[in-house]
Every structure is written in C-alpha cells, then in structure tokens.
Amino acid sequence: MLRTDWTRAEIRALFDLPFTELVFRAAQVHRAHQAADEVQLCTLLSIKTGGCPEDCGYCSQSAHHGSGLKAEKLMDVNSVLSAAAEAKAAGSQRFCMGAAWRSPKERDMPKVVAMIEGVKAMGLETCMTLGMLDEGQARTLADAGLDYYNHNLDSSPEYYERVTSTRTYQDRLDTLENVRNAGVSVCCGGIVGMGETREDRIGFVHALATLPRHPESVTVNALVPIRGTPLGDMLADTPMARVDDIEFVRVVAAARIACPMSMIRLSAGRESMSEAAQALCFMAGANSIFTGDKLLTTGNAGDSADAALFAKLGLRAMEGDEPMRVAAE
Ligand code: SF4
C-alpha cells in the first residue's frame, strides 16, 4: 500500500493535474487512510537558540548570517519541563525540542536525555531536532525513549547546495538512516518558497516518497523571509519569487498522495497564510499543525486563532496515535 518506488515523472504528473483535480485526489487518499476532520496539535520549543555553525540560507540562527538573533545556552531541564506542561495543558499531543547545533556534543547528552525522559513522563510524545546524529547518538536518544527525530531534507537534492554549504544531502540521508536504525520515528520535510523551481518541489516530494520508509511526519514549511539571512534578503528584494498559496497547496496535496499514511504538518509560514489558504491545505490532506505563538524564533498563528479556525472549519484535535505508528505495532 505504501509505495516507495515513485518516479519523478509520476510526482510531476500529480503537480501537472488541474488544481481542483489534484486536491480532490489528495482528499480521497486522506479519507482512505485517516480521519479527515482530525488535526494533530504539536508544540515546538527552541531549547538552544542561535549561534549555529551551519549556514542554512533561510535560518536566523546561523552564526554565518547577520539576523541579529542573540545566541543562548542550552535551556535547563526544569524550564523545558514547565514549557512542556503548558503545551500539554493547551492540548498538545507532541512536544518538539529544537537545538541550533550541527550535531549534539557529548557534554549536552545527559541534559537532552533528562528532557526526553521528563517530557515523556508527562504523557506527551517527544520529538527532538538537534542536527546530525551518528549511530551511537541515535541509540542514546532511542534508549531515553525518544519517539521522533526531526531532520529535514529542505528541498530537492539538486537545490540543496543553494540552501546550505556546510553539509550535503547525503549527510541528511545518513542521519535519517541512523535514526531509523535506532527505532525512532522520523519527522522530515522541507521549505517551499526558497527560490526553487517547480522541478525542485517535485524533486523534494519525490525524495520524501522514496525514502526506504516514509517519514511518519512530513513537515511542509513556507519560507519566512528574515532580513539578514541570504534567502530572506533575496525574497524581500524580489517578492515576485515568493511561492503563491496555490503552489504551496499543490506541494501539500502531492505529499499527501505520495505518502498516504504520514501526517502532513503545516509548520513555519502558517502565520501569514489566510484562513482560506489553510482550509485548502486541510482539504488537500494536511492534518497536523504547530500550536502556540512561537515556532523556534519566528511567529506562529497562536492558540486562540487556531481554536477559532478549527471551530469555523469543524476540525478537532487528534487524540489517537499516528496511522504509521499504529500500523507498525
Ligand atoms: S536550520 Fe538548523 S542547522 Fe541550519 S543554521 Fe538553522 S539551526 Fe543551524
């Protein structure tokens, strides 16, 4: 049922469908595998902000760029646990913790492990995004009980070198493999609107759909242009390069069809999307969002705006486990 042998031509054919036909097909696939009125709520906290040695062209946290963001130390465990408790009280199912690292250092691992154990003990799912992991680090996180690891492919293999120069696409694939081999579920996605072509967007969905196993969660971000970052400056100076909502929905729909049992998560960039555009994304199979008013270092829609949107659209917070994890049990 879950194909990992998609060809680029097949993904391209999805993008080439008339928009309404593509959304209709994505909605059919969504209903065949998941409850279409349920949306998963996740919360993302930056546990270590700024000063990152990587040079991702979209990121305000890179030490290479002049975004003006102040670097901070790794948060203490208690502060992370109180943020997790707040997220749970607000209805979140999953608590994601992100650190601006190339990869975690050995001295940080005991704190990271304590965060995973503490958040899990509250009955929340745990997710971390800490940069590249070797096999041993992936096993340490798995032993602590980590449910998910986020590591994005960002774009197509061809466009990747325009996004970052401090690591390769293969580095990303290697970490994803280490995470899988350690038995941790995978959250993996990318960013639309970085100046890439449609062919790159096709390549991005193709890369996700042809991983040895589809990611349990697929994040689809819209670039939030931040002044001082190369891609943010490029978009601010050439607003015409920005991807429109219809093309963004096409990416969501193609990802839904290619990865039918994955959760498709609307992530960065949702704050500036209209309610109508978000509704189209939900029709096209998106079924997970980040809640709260902050996403790492950028703004997010906020709980009250989301509650109002859910009421308008008749959506409800998902309570059960994700389909791919249920299927694996
Ligand atoms: S996206 Fe992550 S790895 Fe890249 S610069 Fe930002 S914090 Fe570092």
UniProtKB/TrEMBL annotation:
Keywords: 2Fe-2S, 4Fe-4S, Biotin biosynthesis, Iron, Iron-sulfur, Metal-binding, S-adenosyl-L-methionine, Transferase. GO terms for molecular function: 2 iron, 2 sulfur cluster binding; 4 iron, 4 sulfur cluster binding; biotin synthase activity; iron ion binding. SMART domains: BATS, Elp3. Binds 1 [4Fe-4S] cluster. The cluster is coordinated with 3 cysteines and an exchangeable S-adenosyl-L-methionine. Binds 1 [2Fe-2S] cluster. The cluster is coordinated with 3 cysteines and 1 arginine. Its cofactor is [4Fe-4S] cluster; [2Fe-2S] cluster. It catalyses: (4R,5S)-dethiobiotin + (sulfur carrier)-SH + 2 reduced [2Fe-2S]-[ferredoxin] + 2 S-adenosyl-L-methionine = (sulfur carrier)-H + biotin + 2 5'-deoxyadenosine + 2 L-methionine + 2 oxidized [2Fe-2S]-[ferredoxin]. One of its GO terms (biological process) is biotin biosynthetic process. Its EC number is 2.8.1.6. It comes from the Bacteria. Residues 37-270 form the Radical SAM core domain. It holds the Pfam family Radical_SAM. It is an enzyme of class 2 (transferase). Pathway: Cofactor biosynthesis; biotin biosynthesis; biotin from 7,8-diaminononanoate: step 2/2. [2Fe-2S] cluster binds at residues 96, 127, 187, 265. [4Fe-4S] cluster binds at residues 52, 56, 59. Belongs to the radical SAM superfamily. Biotin synthase family. Catalyzes the conversion of dethiobiotin (DTB) to biotin by the insertion of a sulfur atom into dethiobiotin via a radical-based mechanism. Homodimer. This is Biotin synthase. It comes from Sphingomonas aerophila. The gene is bioB.
